[in-house]
Amino acid sequence: MISHVSKLFRSYPILKGMAVYSIIWPTSSIVQQLIAKEKINYKQVFRFWLFGTFFDAPLLYGWIRLSSQMWASMSFKSGITKAVVEQFSYSPLAAVSFFSIMSLMEGKSFKEARHEVVDKFPQTYGAAIVFWPVIQTINYAFMKESNRVPFVACVSFIWTLFLAYMKQLETGNSQEEIEKLQSKLTEGLKVDLQIEKKADLR
């Protein structure tokens, strides 16, 4: 049985990454919820499993295949180059996809999904620039191509914990609530201006 699975992974390397991500992603969601002392939201766990297994793993596999063809060398310099390029190509796409797709799977509107991306992307991308270049330099410079997705998947347990944390953060309000809040703030500003004008007239 194990030999058949191993043969299957060798024949279809993408399945190895998907198998690893199918464990890493839902586990990170569970661990994050336990750390936060929350009741386990199994729907959220399922969404993490779905996204990690069927979207992020294939996306990462495709990027690694493409980058390996563009920079075939496994030198340290080549590894740094790939890691830097990744921060301006794959990383932004992955972060935007995570917040938007996860929001849509939660039943939110496109408008709400867009708001969550705008709200959470800057912090997430800033953390990615610090975290991933070191990891990916090691990955591209020293790991065989067939082992790169599993290596990243194992290291990314820490990253997915962070993503789970970011996902659980409230965006502040729903888009409708934000519009109401903006309206109230505008009305409050008008009232303040009127008070100031009356004070000036006196």
Automatic annotation (TrEMBL):
GO cellular component: membrane; mitochondrion
Transmembrane parts of this sequence: 18-36, 48-68, 88-105, 125-143, 149-166
Highest rank taxon of the organism: Eukaryota
Keywords of the record: Membrane, Transmembrane, Transmembrane helix
Protein's name according to its UniProt entry: Mpv17-like protein
Localization per Swiss-Prot or TrEMBL: Membrane
Similarity comment: Belongs to the peroxisomal membrane protein PXMP2/4 family.
Family annotation (Pfam families): Mpv17_PMP22
Topology in membrane: Multi-pass membrane protein
Species: Chironomus riparius
Major localisation: membrane
